[in-house]
Design brief:
203 residues; alpha+beta; four-stranded antiparallel sheet; two-stranded antiparallel sheet; 33% helix; globular
Length: 203
Amino acid sequence: MRRSLMFSLASLLLVPAFISCGGDAIPTTAPEAAKEPADILYHLQYLAVRKDYKHVALIAPITPDVVYPSARQLHLDAKALGLTLTPEELKGLGIEHLASKLDVLTGGPTDDYPVKDARLAFNSGIYRMTKALTAKTWGKMRHMGISDNSAGRQYGSQAVIKDMALGFDGKKVMTVSCLKKPDGTFGVTLIRWEINPKSLNQE
């Protein structure tokens, strides 16, 4: 009996830390660095639902050729969707000083927009885009295929970028471009909506 109980407890300890969100799993602890593009889904779920703002840095490339244009595009797309950041989110993301610039970012460095700020803007852009989906919808999101992104060659002939389709109930919702970083893990370069998230029936 005691041995059986110990086995049961040990089994529980081996189960990943997830909780149910409307019947679907959302990570409750920060996922480890993404070894494969598919792992990025769990990072986006965790970021969107747990609001661990510092975690986004783990899936964010830091080179200027990525963060400047991608930060600009992420915030432009978020603005078009009517997604905004609250004062609490701006503070948590460390971008209070950039609040007035987020919707009009340049695609390159300027005297008052150094790369350290571009990295913060990029990180906040990823989080801002995740706000288009509710926690319950994020819990439903599933992988729907991964393909090569040949356009990623703009980052160099050796760049490895994969496009990961995400959706639910057989409906493709978004494509996430994932770049292989120098340390071998993957990060996000861009999020593109395949359908307007406003058209989704979300709870």
